[in-house]
Amino acid sequence: MNPSASKKPGLIWLNVLVFTSTFAIAAIGVPLYAYFVGFELSTIIAAILAIGFCGLSITAGYHRLWSHKAYEANVVVRFLFAIGGAFALQNSILHWSSDHRTHHRFVDDNEKDPYSANRGFWYSHIGWMLREYYPQDYNDYHNVRDLKRDKIVMWQHNNYLLLALLTNFGIPVVFGLITGQFWASILLVGFLRLVVSHHVTFLINSLAHMWGTQPYNDQNTAKDNPIVALLTYGEGYHNYHHAFAFDYRNAIKWWQFDPTKWLIKSLSLVGLAKNLRKTPEERINKAIAKLQRNKTCEKLNTLSIPNKEEALLLIHQEYDELLHAMNTFYEAKKEWLEVTKDKLIDNVEKSQQAKRYRELKQSWTEQQKHWQLLIHQYA
């Protein structure tokens, strides 16, 4: 059924029941229990750890590992992410990845993007899962044929309902019986954990497409938002992600919060992950500069100012010079790295290459500063 048709598709009553009942119990039951009985620290810590396990299983597993193939992981890691994904109750890896790949392919297309942000916050956040908007595509996994060869993925997909029930009931029940905090565990580790896991993940589809900055790409609604990143284990740097979807990182600055990236890198350091894919620095810088040029020129074209044509010409000239300095520097950097690895090259040649590399780096740095001053001047 066409999602834009005037008649709304039928409700998916199981999803409606799950989302409304879990939210109601968490929103009403948790505060009442806290007021009349209180929660022990051990149960609170367990709930926080469970939320983290669910969240990272989605971000590092469902999203970056399986949907985008941004790295490869050991079978034990894949198994744990599969369990955590079932615990998070967001459908199987196969189904989630299929939806997400469709989202990236048709981002913001109201007819094809499963959770297009252009249809509003409610729809992209949760509404798309409450009605039969795409019944003909529900079991169409043509875009995840590669994942069908992953035994962990197919094992989880074929046993998803059982795994979801065992984890969502079993883990809170067992922890509650062990600690003597049965109802506290049911409420915190069970219901509150599930609701938080759901809605922080849903924020990536909704808020991360509506609120923030676009430093890398403005061809879709994806935004970089550090506040959303804090809630979603780094996924809030969504503009970068949509610009460079196959990068294992969502945040590239050292000060940006991306624990999913840190987890993946840590796994690689102990041999549990490999082939981490990174976007070349040169490509990132070119994307930033191109977007800055385009936005500045677009703004100038809307203004009635003297010497506008000269200003536009200057921006294009400076942009060309910036690209030339950038290309020259990164070529020199590549040559310098090759020289440092080659033990047969004598020290004189290495010294010459090092001097050239430093000079071009300085030139590139100065050109960057000059470009930023120019952009700010016309901004």
TrEMBL record:
It is found in: Membrane. Pfam families: FA_desaturase. InterPro entries: Acyl-CoA_deSatase_haem/ster-bd, Acyl-CoA_DS, FA_desaturase_dom. One of its GO terms (cellular component) is membrane. GO terms for molecular function: stearoyl-CoA 9-desaturase activity. The chain crosses the membrane at residues 12-36, 43-63, 159-178. The keyword Transmembrane applies. Its EC number is 1.14.19.1. It is a multi-pass membrane protein. Keywords: Fatty acid biosynthesis, Fatty acid metabolism, Iron, Lipid biosynthesis, Lipid metabolism, Membrane, Oxidoreductase, Transmembrane, Transmembrane helix. Belongs to the fatty acid desaturase type 2 family. PANTHER family: ACYL-COA DESATURASE, DESATURASE 1, ISOFORM A-RELATED. This is Fatty acid desaturase ). It comes from uncultured Thiotrichaceae bacterium. The lineage of its organism: Bacteria, Pseudomonadati, Pseudomonadota, Gammaproteobacteria, Thiotrichales.
